[in-house]
Amino acid sequence: MEKNEKVTVDVLDIGQDGEGIGRISVGPDAGFTVFVKDTVPGDQAEVLLVKVKKRFAYGRLIRVIHPSSDRQEAACPMARQCGGCQLQAMKPEAQAAMKMKKVTDDLERIGGFEDAASLVRPIRVPEKLYRYRNKTIYPIAEGKDGRPTAGFFAGRTHSVIPCEDCLLAPEENKIIRHEVLGWMEDHHIRAFDERTGKGLVRHLMIRKGFATGEILVCLVINGHKIPAQDDLVQRLRQVPGMTGITYSSNTERTNVVLTGNTEVLWGRGYVTDILRPPLDGTEVMYHISPRSFYQVNHDMTERLYQEVLEDAGLTGQETVMDLYCGIGTISLFLARKAERVIGVEIVPEAVRDARQNAELNGIGNAEFFAGRAEEVVPRLYRERRIHADVVVVDPPRKGCDRTLLDTIIRMNPEKAVYVSCDPATLARDLRILADGGFQVKKVQPYENFFGTVHVETVCLLSQRKPDTTIEVDLDISELEVSSAETKATYEEIKSYVLEKFGLKVSNLYIAQVKRECGIVERINYNLPKTEGNRVPQCPEDKRKAIKDAFIHFQMI
Asked: What pTM does this model have?
């Protein structure tokens, strides 16, 4: 079996990236595994082998010999070339079943949940399959004819496939794309070339507020100034709904789209959108800037946030932490039902938007912190003794940092709600939380990304309660640990002293000061290991620092 050989493949399954997984059906190599893009489980296809490995091969679809009952004609004529949609050839109900199976399989295989099938609820599907994306990023390139073009990368490459009208994006995008390319061509403005690092325009980003109709454009440029900007503004401001025209400088050799600040050419630097969960009746308005994270499917997001609200089960007495909170999309819904909400987000611009959104909606019980959740949350818990009754996490595709998960386990909230866009990292993190004392109560997938392999999931976790309890009478004099000693561990006291005073203190010194303050010790650190050895005494500066820690942790 060699490259460029034609084979017949029976497609049996689908891979992580939407490619069909099949086996050669006839000949001496029957049974050999081949991965084939644009095929659907149940297809029998003629395939050209493009790469042959020892245990498997990659192939390109030539033609479908016998189509699967789950196959349909792709709605977009660019579906095979474009790397944006992987599943347009699969019927909607088959896509939904595939994604539900993926969530279940990852929970079993990665998370080790033997009861995964009973935990996963039927996937929630949208009414609108197309035109649902409120954010689209088009890479700009020079076409084969030398003219600028915009589209999407072909799968596993950085070759731009021209796409005049993406069916997942709003119809206005077609007009905006046309005007931007026309402006570039008329003023001889070059597209950015990744190979040489030359050329000006790198990406075109378009955001739309589906509830308001507002549109924001952001051009990402390899420079610091937009030429002929008056003409660009004049062209784009005529588009219905246009609210703001902006640009962002990115002169780095990187795959990251937005790296610099955003400058406004005309209008506002944000769009406004409104979310109304269908059963809650609460309406929250948001300002969304180019770098802000915001769920791309407006209609399904309303249903998803309704689920989060119901799972949190707030009574108005709770402190809630919303981690990876973005512009406060979930935080502000929770704040209407909770006593206090604390949001944490790494992107400073998003935190600024979150604070403005809280003010916009008249919400005064939401506080937002900028920084890595895995650094901010342990600090809030350790230094300010902030305890959450409910924790909500909505991390990026890589999932939660282990330090953050360990802090959540130590914080011991009554409930946790995990919103995920990647079933694999979700399963990994749920296993850590389950091993730390949480019980996974339900897993609800959402079809937020029709036509692609992605799936959104909402999981409810609660503290695992013992099946039975035993009542025991204890004589308080028999206890070896005082109530004061349980307020902080030795490591917490050491960390506090080091961060506040820059001093390193030992267990011995902490024990000595505890004894001075009348705090009973379980281990007598004052005893020398061998007879005749002198025990070092705690210096005065460290004694004062340790006492300060005792006061901070309410031990004295």
From this structure: 0.81
